[in-house]
Amino acid sequence: MKKIAMVMVALAFAALTFAGCSVEQKEMYTLENASGMKVVVTPFGARVVSVFVPDRDGNMQDVVLGFDGEISYHPEYNLTDFGATIGRYANRIGGGRLEIDGKEYQLPQNNFGHCLHGGPTGWQYQPYTVEKVTKNSIRLRIDSPDGDNNFPGNVTAKVTYTLTSNNAIDIKYEAVTDAPTVVNMTNHSYFNLNGNPELTVENCILTVNADCFTPVDSTFMTTGEILPVEGTPMDFRTGVEIGNVVGIFDFEQIRNGRGIDHNWCLNTYRDGKGDDSVVAASVYSPLTGINLDVYTDEPGIQVYSGNFLDGTVIGKKGIVYGKHAAICLETQKYPDTPNKPEWPSALLRPGETYRSHTVYAFSVK
Question: Which of 83, 105, 276, 353 has CA 20 to 30 A from 332's CA?
Answer without folding.
Answer: 105
